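User: Quick sanity check before I run a bigger batch. Here is a single chain. Can you write out its predicted 3D structure?
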Amino acid sequence: MESVRISKRLAELGLCSRREADSYIEQGWVKVDGQVAVLGQKVTAGQRIDLDRRASQAQARRVTVLLNKPIGYVSGQAEDGYEPAYVLITPDNQWKGDQSGIRFAREHLKGLAPAGRLDIDSIGMLVLTQDGVVAKHLIGENSSVDKEYLVRVSGALSAEGLARLNHGLELDGKKLLPAQVVWQNEDQLRFVLHEGKKRQIRRMCELVGLRVIGLKRVRIGKVMLGDLPVGKWRYLAAGEKF
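Assistant: Done. Predicted structure follows.
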């Protein structure tokens, strides 16, 4: 039977990220078949793995933040003089309509990282999280979480072009997964994507003769952007799931 590193196995089971697993192992919070695990240990699928309740408590304290990213901020690290969206996660910027019941704490900024990206010239939902499980769910190689966008365009789009947007385009030499693209109104399209290539929507539109004037991400999975104002953020509530 094939064996893998225990940190990889924990991540495969959706219990934590590999980095979190290594931290739990170092603290003696992981057992394999009743014995305390060690870093680098390999396990098989048939072995029993238990997490100490302290690991579960540590996981529960990790927060996920939803930001309505404005134009002019990059999703990740600062680049070309542009600030990362992370700098907007301050007490003053927390949305007054946040219904999560979570009080802001400085420790919530530690290890907070974007789970996905949003172009510098786009607005809408950007997820930042301390939780490796959430990150893997949203951007892991097997992620199937869809994302919805409102896209204002200029140019003429034929019925054939609309059909190609839905299925039939390729980027970087690879065929794109089927999408759902419909007209929202006379100059705005609604895109639902199941993948997230760099500047994907803008490049798709170029291939059918359209120019993107504005792009806004309004949903990730089951979580809606809703009334969250541009530049404001809120916590993901306990009952919300992507």
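Residues 67 and 233 are 4 Å apart (CA to CA).

User: Great, the batch can go ahead then.
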